[in-house]
Design goal:
The protein is built from 8 helices and 7 strands; from the N terminus they run ααββαβαβαβαβαβα. The chain is of the alpha/beta class and about 240 residues long. The protein has one domain: Glycerol-3-phosphate (1)-acyltransferase (3-Layer(aba) Sandwich), CATH 3.40.1130. It has a 7-stranded mixed β-sheet with strand order 1-7-6-2-5-3-4, with helices on both faces. Helix 1 packs antiparallel against helix 2, helix 1 crosses helix 7 and helix 2 packs across helix 3. About 35% of the residues are buried.
């Protein structure tokens, strides 16, 4: 049964991804930004359904920007989960842009790319993010910089919060977790850490019983005179609290 369930989910996901590529290539150029955002949100919700993932939202997602969403990072599923809850522009490492299929979908979703090893590019990205916030956009970052194991959060990188501090823009902490729908226990099936392969993580997720992705939005905060390090420390504590329920 596990094999049949996983195979069925995989086939539906692949068909859905192919449809997404078709929409991006042929329909996106004629759509307004708001229409594109609506398509990304609907597509992400359907992707989760095909993978056997149910979405539960706690708290209030942002209605409009400017706001920066700050979340913990657990899985390859985090981005579609957050897009399904509320479309946002993610900040991602530059090499994602060149990934086959994934890069095209990420770019169409409005992803901003940063070369993490380059200080000059980091400064450019801070300016780009600050301008996006000043335009009233909704941005999202994973300040841990990589996926954690879901048990303890990694430290946050303060440089990703610099744009919000410079723009004095609201920041909203977001806690992510995955639970088994039948038992309510934490599910580690979608985890993607250490030496795990992406293919192995995807297959484990598709083979698992129904999973619920919980997106817990906290209250927005302004930097209010805090420097980026103290602001980051406070946000880490808020996200840690939210992800625990």
């Amino acid at each position: 049964m596990r094999l049949l369930r996983a195979t069925g989910r995989l086939l539906r996901m692949l068909a859905h991804i192919a449809r997404g590529v078709w929409i991006v290539a042929l329909r996106f150029p004629a759509l307004s930004p708001d229409q594109q955002h609506a398509h990304v949100q609907a597509w992400s919700m359907q992707l989760l359904a095909h993978a056997g993932i149910h979405l539960r939202i706690q708290g209030q997602p942002p209605v409009t920007g400017p706001v920066m969403l700050v979340a913990n990072h657990l899985s390859w599923l985090d981005i579609p989960v957050m897009h399904a809850a509320r479309h946002c522009r993610f900040v991602s490492k530059a090499d994602v842009q060149g990934w086959p299929i994934i890069g095209a979908l990420a770019t169409a979703a409005g992803t901003l790319y940063i070369e993490r090893s380059s200080r000059r590019d980091a400064l450019r990205m801070v300016k780009t993010m600050q301008e996006a916030l000043q335009r009233g956009e909704v941005l999202a970052v994973f300040p841990e910089g990589t996926t954690g194991d879901g048990r303890e959060m990694l430290p946050f990188h303060a440089n990703l919060l610099q744009a919000a501090v410079a723009a004095n823009a609201p920041v909203q902490p977001v806690g992510l977790r995955f639970v088994d729908r039948a038992t309510g226990a934490t599910s580690f099936a979608p985890s993607y850490i250490g030496d795990e392969t992406l293919v192995g993580s995807i297959w484990r997720t598709l083979s698992a019983p129904a999973i619920e992705a919980v997106v817990h939005y906290g209250e927005t905060e302004l930097p209010a005179g805090r420097d980026r390090r103290s602001f980051t420390h406070d946000l880490h504590a808020r996200v840690d609290q939210l992800r625990r329920g």
